[in-house]
Amino acid sequence: LTVWLNKYLNIKSIYLGVSENNKRAIRLYSKVGFEIYAKKSGSFFMCYNHIKNKFILGTAQFGLNYGITNKNDKPIEKNLIKNIYNYCNKTGLNHLDTASNYNFNFKLLPKCKWIIDTKITINKDNTKFTSLNKIFAEFNQNKNLTLNTVYIHNPDKIFTNDGISIMKMLESYKNKKFKNIGISVYDL
Fold first, then answer.
1. Which end of the chain has fewer beta carbons closer than 10 Å to its terminal beta carbon, N or C?
2. Residue 119: helix, strand or coil by DSSP?
3. pLDDT at position 90
4. pLDDT at 43 (0 to 100)
5. Burial of 123 (0-12, 13-18, 19+ CB in 10 A)
6. pLDDT attached to residue 86
7. Helix (H), strand (E) at residue 7
8. Taking Cα atoms as reference points, which of 145, 136, 137, 149 lies closest to residue 110?
9. Among the residues of 93-160, which ranges form H helices?
C-alpha cells in the first residue's frame, strides 16, 4: 500500500495514531517501516516516510579514497561529510552503510538516531569474541546508534573453519546487539 500511494499519488509520508496498549498493531506498523515520533495521552503517533525507508547512504568515500567519481584520490573532506550528514538528518535519511576498514568516524555524526549496517571480514583476527566486541564497542557507547545488520564482507569464506566460527558468534549476538546477518556480494 505504501509503495502504491507513493507511485500513483506521490504521497511521501503517512501518519497514524495508535493506542500504546495495542501492541500487535504497533509491532505490525513497525515491521512495515512506521516509526514512533511522539507519545501523548496513552497513544503513539507513527510515521512512514517513503524516502527514508528506501535509501541507505554508503560511507566508503568518507574514510577511504574510494569510488569511480573520486578524482582527487583522497577521502571526502570532514566539512563536506558533516554537510552530507546534516542534509540526511533534515530529510529523514538515517540509515548508513559502513565497515570497520572504512576508517568511519562516528564523531562526525549529528546527535540524532542513526541506523547502521556494517561489514566484517572473515579472518583469523575476528574469530574471537574480543575482536567482535571491539567492532560493537562504538554501538554500545553511543545510544544514538542502532546496529541493524552485520554483513560478511567476504562470503566465499563462510564455510571455512574461521567462517563457521564467526557465524556461530554472530548467531549468539543476533537480537542482542543487532537484528540481521547478511552477506555483501560483489560479483556472480
1. C
2. strand
3. 80
4. 94
5. middle
6. 87
7. helix 2-9
8. 145
9. 129-141
Say how far apart CA 82 and CA 86 lie, in whole Å.
6
pTM for the full model? 0.69
Helix, strand, coil shares, percent, the chain, to 5: 40, 25, 35
Q: What is the pLDDT of residue 58?
A: 87
Spans of the chain below 50 pLDDT: none
Length of the chain: 188
Q: Outline where 15-173 has alpha helix (H).
A: 23-31, 60-63, 78-91, 129-141, 161-173
The one-character DSSP state at 111 is: S
Which residues, including other chains, have CB under 8 Å from residue 155's CB and lie 6 or more apart?
Answer: 183, 184, 185
